[in-house]
Predict the structure of 2Fe-2S ferredoxin-type domain-containing protein.
Amino acid sequence: MPLITFAGHTYQASSEKPLLDSLLAYRLPIPHSCQSGFCHSCLMKADKGQVPACSQKSLSNEKIRQGYFLACQCVPEQDIEISLPVRNKIPGIITGKTLLTSTLVALDIAPRHPFHYEPGQLVTLWAEETLRSVEPGADYSEGLNELARPCYLASLSGQDASLTVHIQRRASRKFSQWAHDCTQIGQKISIGDVRGANIYQQLSSSNLIVVQDGCLAPVLPLLRKLCADTTASEKSVTLVLQVDHTDNLYEQALIHRLVRQSPNLSIQVCGGLQGKKQLETIMMEPKPVYRQLIIAGDQGFIKKHTQQVQMDIQTLPYS
Ligand code: FES
């Protein structure tokens, strides 16, 4: 069994399961959320020893060089000494809270320091200050370690005063429950580093954007930027909104205003069971004019709808 040294103490870790599981079994305060390599809230640093390359594959070269890795993706193969990184977090205040559908809430957040971000990018939000110093032997199991979540920024940098995120209610996610039930205007929240690709920059001449139920946030800033960009007349976007129930449609006034404003933007709503079939037909035989598919949804939705697609694909996964 590999030996893991953390905060001056040494622990035995399993060589068959993720390091995060072993550390949490010792009730250590390791921040985590998705446990699937997406949110980066379990980012740690190997100060001595090597971690498997697969635990670093979504990190920048600079971070890899410095020994950072994701604890949820790391099945240790040797003894290592690890630490929690110092995180760049910006304090923010919740300035708005709107229920968009019965299961989707929008939070507006004013960061203490304004910062720039691009359409399609996300930040990790932290419910409270969760990275406390580690006291050996203390039991952190009831702490706030899971109250972090990556969220796509639904606002447009340079246009909107606040950051806006949309959070789906999920019974199994503590952050989601906290965001829906415990937040109020004036409350503090911490904002992590911006990450993710600038999908606006990657738009091709003809784009098909497919959005799963409740996943409009990552594409809203792209649509707004496209409609405001007078130099983008050669770029066209067809937006296909899949919704299980029409009650789940939101921001429709904004979307239709954008469609009226821009001849380059069209929209198709695929609602209910019939809509699912419509979407399958669209994906089986996408019009040859499309050069690129941008798809936002959960992993299963993305996998299902990209298997046979022959064009360039940009994914905006939800954890
Ligand atoms: S908990 Fe490891 S990346 Fe999300």
Notes: The first helix runs from residue 19 to 25. Residues 206-318 form a domain with the Rossmann fold fold (CATH 3.40.50.80). The longest strand covers residues 90-101.
